[in-house]
Every structure is written in structure tokens, then in C-alpha cells.
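ok so I'm stuck.
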Amino acid sequence: MFNLAKASFFALLLAVSSIAQTDAMRGSRGRMREFKITVTNLSYQQTMSPFFVMVHNRNAVPLYELGKPEKGNGLKLLAEDGMASDLVDHYTMMEKDGVFSAEGVGGPTPGGGSSSFNIKTSGSFEYLSIASMAIFTNGM
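replied:
not stuck anymore, here's the structure
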């Protein structure tokens, strides 16, 4: 049986709702903005899988909800195999439902390493969700 609480831990949801709305963003509703995001893996000898990255607004369906059954959105595949493809497919189809973009980025990021990538956002899409798998774990 798939344990969502363990999956959420082992998927290591790194940041939810973390695009801070700056004064410049507040004044640029509707204008395309680009940000460089750097994720630093602070773990000791624990490699993280490539990242699932989603830019969205408050209307998007969350990756998971504590205490609720797995949504079938691909988080299980990320948690168990480190593959973001099902999450990307699921959330890309939801672009009319609060999702601006969903993609898999980077490669494995070793402990102490960093991965950087660019994201674009516009209008009310002010949230960033990032998920990854801690590779050297047994989440079963």
C-alpha cells in the first residue's frame, strides 16, 4: 500500500508557495516575468532527483493534502522512482485550472550541490511548487 505521508517526505517537497510577491511584481499584473531559481541540496551525501517545478496560482490543485488519499497525479512515481514525467503530464493538462507551467528540470543534485533553472510567470501566477525524490532512501 502506498503511504502518502512517507511519499511526501521522500519526495521532499522543497518549496510550496515560495515566489515572494515583490513590489515590482505587484505593479506588473499581466506582464511576463522571469526568475532564476537556485535549489541547494543541504543534505549529507543524499542525492536529489531532477526537480518537478510548477508555477501556479491559488486555484491549482495541490500536489498533495495531508491526511488525504494519493491523487493519482504522479507524485507516487516521483517519490518511488524519481521520475517527474507523470506530474508534468498531469499538471500541464491543468493550465486552464490555475497552472501557468509544469516541467521537469535539472539532473541529479548531490548533497552540497546546487541546481539552477529559470521560471516564467505572469499575472496572478505567484506560487512555485518544487518536488524531488531523495534518491538514497527506502520509501517502501
